[in-house]
Amino acid sequence: MCTALWLSSGEGYELFFNRDESARRGVAHPPSAFTVHGVRCLAPVDADAGGTWLGVNELGLTVGLLNGRDARPAIGEARSRGLLVRELLSSRDLDEVASRLAAADLARYRAFTLAAFAPGREPVAHDWNGLALVPAPAVLPLSSSSLDAGRARAERTRAFERLVRERGAVDRELLAEFQRSHEPERGPWSPCMHRADASTVSASQVLVTRDSVAFRYAPGAPCTVAFESPRTLARRSRA
Fold first, then answer.
1. Which residues does 226 contact at the CB level (< 8 Å), separation at least 6?
2. pLDDT per residue over 142-168, tens digit each?
3. Alpha-carbon distances, residue 194 vs 20, 53, 132, 189, 197 (angstroms)
4. Following CA atoms 182, 56, 109, 46 in sequence, which dihedral angle do they give, to the nearest 10 degrees?
5. In 10 A of CB 12, how many CB atoms?
6. What is the C-alpha end-to-end distance of the chain, expressed in Å?
7. What is the pLDDT of residue 216?
8. Which parts of the chain register pLDDT below 70?
9. Topology (CATH level 3) of domain 2-144+197-234
10. Best label site of 113, 164, 165, 176, fewest CB within 10 Å?
11. What is the spatial distance between Cα 172 and Cα 14, in angstroms, rounded to a whole number?
């Protein structure tokens, strides 16, 4: 239940990410800095399980979580997928994310799509359905929905393509507008999502440049809630 969009530049990228959640879930804590295996990170914290759905590290690597469709339920008591995201934030690059996912005991997790972003590389989406882990290029816009993932993707893709045709190019302003939009109408399929039992509960914008990483966060639907001041880290090289 999320929507992700991104814009790459020569030495970095900008990511726009909406989190859609059930009204029963607790209110998440805003982004803060922490260290995972010696790597500094920025991420909000899920109030229910202590993990995160989106984070960026000082190397410029971002990991984001979207829901998937279970082909088989998790074996035993399911572990929070947000804890997996938090652990992967210590990865140095996209290749390490892929190798660590391949080696992980994914049978403990419900289905997911995990998207990873890094400067100078095309983002990659890893789909886990309970039976197999399949990597694939990430395609704009990346989205999921617990109601009907296929229709959500189709509706949001049509709205995105219509906006691109009107503007003639994809830029930061277009992505920010799409992040808070109610196309085709305010409801379950719009990027800024609203249902009786669930809604967009936060919006995030991650900016990675040559010198820094920054995380801007709106603790509510971006159509009504303003973004807070960004949290930042100095960017360091992988060497």
1. 218
2. 987 666 667 888 889 999 999 999 999
3. 9, 19, 32, 8, 8
4. -70
5. 21
6. 36
7. 98
8. 1, 70-71, 145-149, 239
9. Penicillin V Acylase; Chain A (3.60.60)
10. 165
11. 8
Tokens of 119: 């400067």
Say how far apart CA 232 and CA 41 lie, in whole Å.
10
Q: Which helix (H) or strand (E) holds 164?
A: helix 149-167
Residue 124 β-bridge partners: 116, 137
Tell me how far apart the alpha carbons of residues 75 and 130 are, in angstroms, rounded to a whole number: 9
Task: Name the nearest CA neighbour of 31 among 236, 233, 226.
Answer: 233
The CA distance from 58 to 55, in Å, is 10
What residue type is 109 in one-letter code?
Y
Instruction: Residue 5: count other Cβ atoms within 10 Å of its Cβ.
Output: 23
Residue identified by tokens 């984070």 is 55
CA dist 216 → 11, 201, 206, 219 (Å): 19, 14, 6, 10
Other CB atoms within 10 Å distance of the CB of residue 146: 16
Q: Residue 151's pLDDT is what?
A: 83
Residue 126 CB: number of other CB atoms within 10 A?
Answer: 22
Q: What is the distance between the alpha carbons of residues 52 and 29, in angstroms, rounded to a whole number?
A: 10
Residue 71: its pLDDT value, please? 63
Which sign does the torsion angle of CA 165, 171, 175, 176 carry? negative
Residue-level pLDDT at 5: 93
The pLDDT assigned to 99 comes to: 97
* 170/172 Cα distance (integer angstroms): 7
C-alpha to C-alpha distance for 142 and 218, rounded to whole angstroms: 20
